[in-house]
Design goal:
- Helices cover 31% and strands 19% of the residues.
- It has 216 residues and is α/β, with parallel strands linked by helices.
- It has a single domain (4-214), classed as TIM Barrel (Alpha-Beta Barrel).
- The two termini are 14 Å apart.
- The structure holds D-xylitol-5-phosphate and zinc ion.
- Zinc ion is lined by residues 8, 33, 35, 66, 175, 195.
Length: 216
C-alpha cells in the first residue's frame, strides 16, 4: 500500500480554518489529523468538539482525531457526533484499553492507539488485533514544531514485525517532527501514515509540501 499523508491542523491558521480546509481538500492529503489537547494529559490546550463539528461540512477527507486527553471514554460518542472517523486514544491514558477500543468500534469509528516516545511497542501485543491505527509519537505530545526523536525508526521496525507476525491490518502512523528529512526513511521502515503539521503549514506552499511527502 502506498503511504498516506495526514496534515495536522494544529499548525493551520485558526482565524481562517475554512481556507486551510480547502487547501487540504484540494491537495494530495489523505486524511485530516486533528489534535485534541486537554491541558491535563498534555501541558497544552488546543480545541474540542465544536471546532471539529464546524469544519466537518467543509472537508472531503476522513477525520483522524488524536485525543491527548485523560478519561477519553467519557467523550467517545461526542467525538463521533462531531465528525471523527478515526478515534485515537493514548495507551498511557487508558486503564481498560480493550474496553475503550470496543467502545470506539461500537460507536462506528476506526480505532487508534498512540504511544508516547517512552512507551514500548510490545505493550500492544495483546490488543493489536483490535487496533486499526497505531500512532507512534515521535515527539512528546502537546506541541507542534518539535524535533523528531530518532529512536522512532526502531519502534516502527518492531511494530511492523509484530503486525506481520500477528497478520493484522494495523496501520503505523508517525506523529511529530515529520519532514522531508525523515519521511522516506520512515516509510522504508514500514510507516503507513505520515502526520505533519509545522512542516506543511510553515512552508511557503503547503499543497506542494503535502505532495512532496506523498511522492517520496
Ligand atoms: C503533537 C501532535 C502532533 C502535531 C505535529 O502533540 O500530536 O500531531 O500537530 O506537529 P509537527 O508536525 O509540527 O511536529
Ligand atoms: Zn497528533
Amino acid at each position: 500500500m502506498a503511504h498516506l499523508v495526514a496534515p495536522s491542523i494544529l499548525s493551520a491558521d485558526f482565524s481562517n480554518l475554512q481556507a486551510d480546509c480547502a487547501l487540504i481538500n484540494n491537495s494530495d492529503a489523505d486524511w485530516y489529523h486533528i489534535d485534541v489537547m486537554d491541558g491535563v494529559y498534555v501541558p497544552n490546550i488546543s480545541f474540542g468538539m465544536p471546532i471539529i463539528k464546524a469544519i466537518k461540512p467543509l472537508s472531503t477527507k476522513p477525520f483522524d482525531v488524536h485525543l491527548m486527553i485523560v478519561e477519553p471514554d467519557r467523550y467517545i460518542e461526542d467525538f463521533k457526533k462531531a465528525g471523527a472517523d478515526h478515534l485515537t486514544v493514548h495507551y498511557e491514558a487508558c486503564t481498560h484499553l480493550h474496553r475503550t477500543l470496543q467502545a470506539i468500534k461500537e460507536a462506528g469509528m476506526k480505532t487508534g492507539v498512540a504511544l508516547n516516545p517512552h512507551t514500548p511497542v510490545h505493550l500492544l501485543k495483546d490488543t493489536l488485533s483490535e487496533i486499526d491505527i497505531v500512532c507512534l509519537m515521535s515527539v512528546n505530545p502537546g506541541f507542534g514544531g518539535q524535533s523528531f526523536i530518532e529512536n522512532t525508526y526502531r519502534k516502527v521496525s518492531e511494530l511492523k514485525e509484530m503486525i506481520i507476525s500477528q497478520n493484522t491490518n494495523t496501520l503505523i502512523e508517525i506523529d511529530g517532527g515529520v519532514s522531508d528529512k525523515n519521511a522516506a526513511k520512515l516509510v522504508e521502515h514500514g510507516a503507513d501514515v505520515l502526520v505533519a503539521g509545522s512542516f506543511v503549514f510553515g512552508s511557503e506552499n503547503p499543497a506542494q509540501t503535502i505532495s512532496r511527502l506523498k511522492n517520496l
